[in-house]
Design goal:
about 300 residues; alpha+beta; four-stranded mixed sheet; 10 helices
């Protein structure tokens, strides 16, 4: 056993494999310090424990050693997220999950270690939740394809994506690059932590709760397989989170692509396409994330 409580990993070139020490990196003082800076800067409402962010440090000084030990022992249990409804500019609401401050800190620490592992391999067609990229970059990419003559848009909407992700399908893709089983188990506990709606606790057998620092990365890990599939078919496309568009040159090609992509999503990734919102059109409105504005292309 190593001094921090993790089993010594298999050796690569005579040295322990660093990929099996991810949990030590996640819980390192430097990584946690950076994670706390980001969580504190983002502020945010209290979770189900009603602890405001300004009270967290006093709590952490007293309880962190035991929390850290429980994480290494695979016995840590995150609190369920608090479900709230956020008003949309176009009317109605969208659900948002608010984790407790402690769980925001741990999720942020996980994300900071995993993003450098996964992000360099993500598709250039992916623009959401990635440093240096934005929805406007996705708009410019779509405009570029239109100028090249790809003027027919295949627009598919994933039905309640964040609520319907199959955990086994997601974790199979995470485990392709994460070999530290303790980290995989920790991520799994967050997926299964549950959600409180009103005063009732609901199990989360599916889905990735929106609102946590880890959710954007997990969504990109799963949907990167879609990006790579489209690249392999030489399609012109752009994706921001669960919104994506494919540009083709004819309506006939668009109908064919829509059918094949729907099959891929539903059979390979176990996701559902919203039949009412999917379509093939000669004009396209790209939705800017985190707002309800559309920019016409």
């Amino acid at each position: 056993m190593n001094p921090t409580g993790g089993a010594v990993g298999r050796r690569v070139g005579g040295k322990p494999d660093p990929d099996e020490y991810l949990l030590e990196r996640i819980l390192s003082r430097a990584n946690l310090s950076e994670a706390w800076k980001r969580v504190k800067a983002n502020r945010g409402a209290p979770g189900v424990d009603d602890m405001p962010i300004d009270d967290f440090m006093a709590y952490a000084w007293e309880h962190w050693p035991g929390i850290r030990s429980s994480i290494f022992a695979n016995s840590y249990k995150p609190l369920p997220v608090k479900r709230v409804e956020i008003p949309k500019a176009t009317g109605g609401t969208r659900p948002l999950g608010i984790p407790a401050v402690l769980d925001r800190l741990i999720q942020q620490a996980i994300a900071q270690v995993l993003v450098p592992i996964f992000d360099p391999g993500f598709s250039e067609a992916s623009f959401g939740f990635r440093k240096g990229l934005s929805a406007h970059d996705a708009v410019y990419q779509v405009r570029h394809y239109i100028r090249e003559g790809y003027r027919v848009a295949v627009d598919a909407d994933l039905a309640k994506f964040f609520d319907t992700v199959e955990h086994d399908v997601l974790m199979a893709r995470v485990s392709r690059k994460v070999r530290d089983k303790r980290v995989l188990k920790l991520i799994g506990t967050y997926l299964r932590a549950g959600v409180v709606i009103g005063n009732r606790l609901h199990e989360t057998r599916k889905g990735v709760p929106q609102g946590g620092p880890l959710s954007p990365l997990l969504s990109n890990i799963l949907l990167d397989e879609l990006d790579k599939e489209l690249e392999g078919r030489s399609h012109r496309c752009a994706r921001y989170a669960d919104d994506f568009v494919i540009l083709v040159k004819s309506r006939r090609a668009g109908e064919r692509v829509m059918a094949s992509v729907t099959r891929f999503l539903e059979r390979k990734l176990k996701l559902k396409v919203n039949q009412e919102k999917r379509g093939v059109s000669d004009s396209y409105a790209l939705k800017a994330p985190n707002s309800d504005r559309y920019e016409m292309i």
